Automatic annotation (TrEMBL):
Top-level taxonomy: Bacteria, Bacillati, Actinomycetota, Acidimicrobiia, Acidimicrobiales
Family matches, as Pfam families: YbjQ_1
Annotated family: Belongs to the UPF0145 family.
The organism's place on the tree of life at top rank: Bacteria
Provenance organism: Ferrithrix thermotolerans DSM 19514
Name of the protein in question: Uncharacterized conserved protein YbjQ, UPF0145 family
Length: 268
């Protein structure tokens, strides 16, 4: 497979110094002691903590007060900002010669610089197979996964490997009740069907988009799916649903799933 290494464009100068230390043999990691030992047991070596960041200006989109609808401008902005952070994290992993990144965390932070600014951060531990067995993604880039060290070990023992961290999101405006609806429901126990349907639709859009990413990398399935929601300061009736998980595939076409032997910490 031909492969062009990822670029260091967008990485700060000091990141190069940190990566040079890692290449010289000093690894850094956010793995726990148990995770570190299990990753090594799976045949991989930690190379370094890799980080990607993007401070993004989130634009504005008008929403009708009485209409539930996706706010596509905001959806695209939130997705693109995360994608930038992920790409830069992958660039750091590539500079270390990593096969992939595990324990990936995607975080969104806000500062006092402005209400419309947010920092998107991707962080994880780059690893490489000890015997040089290539475990990269189909496009030649380092694989990414939010699996913990324990879950990664279990997955490898079962004959599977991660391909990519896949995600989908949807920023949705939930319609307000009219005055008549509010007064009519004030003294009743009743389902708020407009809210139910709006949130249901928004979650489904996020989940479906995550599934499409898994199809693009030819995954057999997605494990460890998490579904997050947050308003990010937009107000009570605008919410983002964010679905994320690890797309996986069998290591070989013929494999048997064996029961993993649990490794427990030694105590006195």
């Amino acid at each position: 497979m031909s492969y062009d290494p990822t670029s260091t464009e967008g990485l700060p100068k000091d990141a190069g110094v940190r990566l040079a230390q890692n290449r010289a043999g000093l690894f850094t990691s956010d793995l726990s002691v148990n995770e570190f030992l299990l990753v090594k047991e799976a045949g991989f070596e930690p190379l370094g903590l890799v980080v990607g960041s993007s401070i993004y200006h989130i634009g504005f989109q008008f929403a009708r007060w009485q209409q539930s609808q996706e706010l596509t401008v905001l959806t695209q902005a939130m997705y693109h900002a995360r994608e930038l952070a992920m790409t830069r994290m992958e660039e750091e992993a590539d500079q270390l010669g990593a096969d992939g990144v595990i324990g990936v965390r995607l975080e969104v932070g806000r500062y006092e610089w402005g209400a419309d600014l947010a920092e998107f951060i991707a962080i994880g531990t780059a690893i490489k197979h000890r015997d040089g067995v290539l475990h990269r993604a189909p496009d030649g880039r380092p694989f990414t996964s939010d699996l913990s060290g324990q879950d990664f070990w279990t997955l490898i023992q079962a004959g599977y490997r991660p391909l990519s961290l896949v995600m989908g999101n949807c920023v949705y405006h939930v319609a307000h009740q009219t005055l008549r609806q509010g007064l009519g429901n004030a003294m009743k126990n009743v389902e708020m069907t407009n809210y139910t349907q709006a949130l249901y639709d928004a979650r489904e859009l996020a989940m479906a988009r995550m599934g499409e990413e898994a199809k693009q990398v030819q995954a057999e399935g997605i494990v460890g799916v998490n579904l997050f929601e947050g308003s990010h300061g937009w107000g009570s009736h605008t919410i983002e649903f964010f679905a994320v998980g690890s797309a996986v595939t069998p290591i070989s076409k013929e494999h048997k799933i064996s029961k993993p032997q649990l490794v427990l910490p030694v105590t006195d």
